[in-house]
Design goal:
single chain; alpha/beta; six-stranded mixed beta sheet; 48% helix; globular
Amino acid sequence: MLSIVSPCYDRLSRVEFMLFGVICWFLWKQRNDRVMQGEELNPQELAALAVRFINQLSEVESRTVSLNPQVTHPTSWLPCHHPGIIKLTFDGALFAGGAQLGLGGLFRDSEGKCLHWFSTTIPGPGEPMLADMKACLIGLQLAKNLNIQNLILEGDCLPLVQLISGPVDMRSLWGPLVMDVQALMASLDSVEIKFVKRTGNMYADALAKAQLSCACGIDDELIPDAIKQAILADSIR
C-alpha cells in the first residue's frame, strides 16, 4: 500500500491527494456495503460522492475553531448561552489494559440541563486517544440520529481536538477515523470542537468509566446518582 501512496503524495497537490485518499476510502466502504447489504454504486456516482465529501470537509475546516495554546481553556463545564446550541462533552476510558474501551458523553442545553447521554463499552485493543475518538464518533452519530443540528463538541484530549480540527492526513493511521468524524460534522448545520481541561469534562469521564451499556439515555434516566446530582448543581450554578 505504501508503494502506491508515497509516489502519489510526492506528485499530487494537497487537494488531489485528498481526493485520491477519499476515493480509496469510498471504494473500501462500497466494498463493505456490497458484501453486507448488496448496495452498489457506479464509478461516476462514487467519484461525485468523493468530490462532494471533499467540499464538506473544507466547510468543516472553515467552521472549526483554530486552537491557540495561549488561550485559557475552561477548567469546569460552562453552558453555551445561545438557545438552540447543544454542548456534547465526550470521553473514553480503558479497561483490562486496553482490551476493552469505555465510551461516555452527554448532551446539555444552554441552561445546563442533560438532554441525552451515553455510556457503553466496545472491544479493544486500543489506546486512550482511540477511546476518545470512538466516543466522539458515537456522540456525533447520536446527534445526527436525534436531529441535533447546532453542536459544540468538548473533549479533554488536546491532540485529538487538533487532529479533528485540521486537514485529514490519509497517510496517518488516524486518517479513516478522522474522516468519519469530519463527515458527520459536515452533516450538521453548525459545529465547533473545543478543548477543555479534564476538570471540565469529569461527567463524561465518569460515564465512560461507568460501563452502563446504554447507547442513548433520555434525560437523566438511569444515570448514576452522583453524576446526576453534579449535573444538576452545574445547571443551577
